[in-house]
């Protein structure tokens, strides 16, 4: 029997949305492992010149031409070709809700979409809990995205919070039965690395961070609330660990200026875009992973840290308690003292060991097999493995 084909709609490469690229590859690899034929199709820069930025100025509008005017022609042609070749054996999946307008060019009964969050949409609509303010053009774009999301018959939301907020924001009293929760799986092999080996990895990468240190993975977006870590170590009654590592996007000038004002600048370290080996080494060596986000759709770094045997202190705003499975310390992300108190609790050996053990168990919930099973159920495809 010929295996079904999955056409995954990915993101515009110049936008450099690394998390969405990882998700598309995660989904593609999981489906391929089950024997399905998978293609990732994404809009390509045509009118946007090479090395131009699509994030501001003329480049932003040229990027819109590539994504919203030219690529739909490619999609419609692709649908005709694939359905002519494979009939009902082909399925389409839009990997990022921000590409919801593509749903208008795909067969509704053969298409699903993943909603990672509704933060930008809620920000455009004036919801303060999103911590995502929008420009005038952004308001129009996000309303357009929401309009198309509402039409989707099948939506996989990555957390219960995301589904609940989508229903609320869309104004749906009775959402389609195809709107469901499919938590993300870990997108790589995250595991504890022994101290000596982890230190060697960082040394080879030229990274020197005094231990013990606190770790944050992410960006400088205000909603990531990186300043909370500065305020934690600046607490007058807070002993070691006193160093902070910001990995992912290096600390920006605003964050460094605040560190200087709080007299903790010499304790701030940045590791820009670490590869997977370095990332696992950082998780494994950190005294604690601190994740004080003001808003999230899921929170991959939380379970990555748990999988590496690192205790987690995170925001008590949903969905982080949902994702942590209770295997983390949670505090109000607007209260630096509460985070400092949580950090001091980790000095209790029994509590620390318990959080590590529970964290490892919780991270195991987010396996690829479970996620792919749920995506196949969403598409109404029987779960099976094809013979090569």
Short characterization:
Helices cover 42% and strands 14% of the residues.
Overview features:
388 residues, alpha/beta, Rossmann fold, 2 domains, six-stranded parallel β-sheet, 14 helices, 12 strands
Task: Characterise this structure.
With 388 residues, the protein is an alpha/beta fold. The chain folds into two domains: 5-185 and 368-378, Glycogen Phosphorylase B (Rossmann fold); 195-363, 3-Layer(aba) Sandwich (Rossmann fold), CATH 3.40.50. It is 42% helix and 14% strand. The chain is built from 14 helices and twelve strands. The protein has helices spanning 18-33, 57-86, 119-124, 136-151, 160-170, 195-204, 227-233, 253-261, 276-285, 300-307, 320-324, 336-345, 349-363, 368-378; strands at 5-9, 37-41, 90-94, 111-115, 155-157, 179-181, 213-218, 243-248, 268-272, 288-291, 312-315, 329-331. Helix 1 links the parallel strand 1 (5-9) and strand 2. Helix 6 packs across helix 9 (276-285), helix 7 (227-233) crosses helix 12 (336-345) and helix 10 (300-307) crosses helix 13. The radius of gyration is 22 Å and the shape is globular. The termini are close together.
Topology:
Blueprint (H helix, E strand, L loop, with lengths): L4 E5 L8 H16 L3 E5 L15 H30 L3 E5 L16 E5 L3 H6 L11 H16 L3 E3 L2 H11 L8 E3 L13 H10 L8 E6 L8 H7 L9 E6 L4 H9 L6 E5 L3 H10 L2 E4 L8 H8 L4 E4 L4 H5 L4 E3 L4 H10 L3 H15 L4 H11 L10
Parallel strand pairs: 1-2, 1-3, 3-4, 4-5, 5-6, 7-8, 7-10, 8-9, 10-11, 11-12
The count of β-strands is 12
Radius of gyration: 22 Å
What is the molecular shape? globular
Portion of residues within helices: 40-55%
Mean pLDDT, nearest integer? Answer: 93
Number of helices: 14
Would you list the SSEs in sequence order as H and E? Answer: EHEHEEHHEHEHEHEHEHEHEHEHHH
- The CATH topology name of the largest domain reads Rossmann fold
Termini separation comes to 11 Å
**CATH architecture annotation name of the largest domain:** 3-Layer(aba) Sandwich
Give a short account of the largest sheet.
6 strands, parallel
| Protein structure class | alpha/beta
What share of the residues does DSSP label as strand, in percent? 5-15%
Find the CATH superfamily of the largest domain. Answer: Glycogen Phosphorylase B
Name of the CATH first level of the largest domain: Alpha Beta
**Total number of domains:** 2
Task: Indicate the low-confidence ranges by residue numbers.
Answer: none
Main sheet strand line-up: 2-1-3-4-5-6
